[in-house]
Amino acid sequence: MKKYISYLFSILVAVAALTSCSEDAGTEPGSDGAPKAVIYTYTPGEPYNPDNDIQLRIATNQQTSEAYYLAELATEKEKHIASMGENGYMDYVISNGTKIEGVSGNSNVDIFLTDLVGNYSITVVAINGNTRTSSSVNFMGIEWSLIGEGYYTAPMFGVTDMPVQVYKAGHAEWYKMPSIFEDGKDMVIKVNGASATVDQQDVFTEPSYGSVYVAGSGVVENGVITLTLQYTCSAGSFGTFNDVLKLPTQQ
Q: What are the φ and ψ backbone dihedral angles of 101, each rounded to 5 degrees?
């Protein structure tokens, strides 16, 4: 079924012209008087798990002689800052964190953090002698639990009530189902009351046209999510289609 759906989609994208895009490589901070580190975040590719792994690019300025990072649950960071203050927390990061190898003046260093479950705060402290500054980013590591078997309908691809496993996130009313296009590229649906949202996500790869994305929104009623989805790739849009996900009764 997935090979057939992929074949149908390849026919659809064949009518569009291919264009290319590139990832923002990040920039280095300017010539500040104090040490400084800027944190750029990226979604890591295979073999990493984007739900629980993150790629960081640490860009330091010419005043930075060394830098340290520490990743911990945001609630733990809040407790530490409440007890020791911002300056004390920077000392804590230096003492309990990891030194970033390869930092010397203007530098760009990539770091991969894995197996994060929960709301994490990642703090980087840049140092030059007795002067130090900090910067931080947050990352939500998602814990998914299988809640049962649902049914997915995609009229464009001739799919009606296709059985799919449905997972629910531990931190929010988010649902995940295996992609009907390609193994490993699941669809995540965020529910807020009676509304549903599909943020732009990569669900299919076609060798000649690259990544294909889906995004959209919908409504939730009696355990049924009705979605209006827009499929696009670098070549442009391929139209809007109405898909349906029936959630398992045991939520």
A: -70, 140
Question: What is the rounded (10 degree) CA torsion for 69, 73, 76, 78?
Answer: 80
Instruction: Report the alpha-carbon distance of residue 35 to residue 139 in Å, rounded.
Output: 24
How far is it, in rounded angstroms, from Cα 111 to Cα 70? 12
d(CA 4, CA 239): 19
**Tokens describing residue 173:** 């009313």
pLDDT value for 235: 72
Q: List b or e across 167-181, with b for residues whose CB sees 16 or more CB atoms inside 10 angstroms.
A: bbbeeeebbbbbbbb
What sign for the dihedral angle of Cα 177, 180, 184, 185? negative
The type of residue at 132 is R
Q: In whole angstroms, what is the distance from residue 126 CA to residue 34 CA? A: 9
Find, among 243, 213, 209, the residue nearest to 226 by Cα: 243
The SS3 call for residue 89 is helix
Rounded to an integer, what is the distance from CA 172 to the centroid of its chain?
Answer: 15
Answer yes or no: pTM beyond 0.85.
Answer: no
Instruction: List per-block mean pLDDT (blocks of 10 residues) for the chain, which spans 251 residues.
Output: 57 43 45 87 91 96 97 97 97 97 95 96 97 97 94 87 93 89 87 94 78 90 91 77 83 45
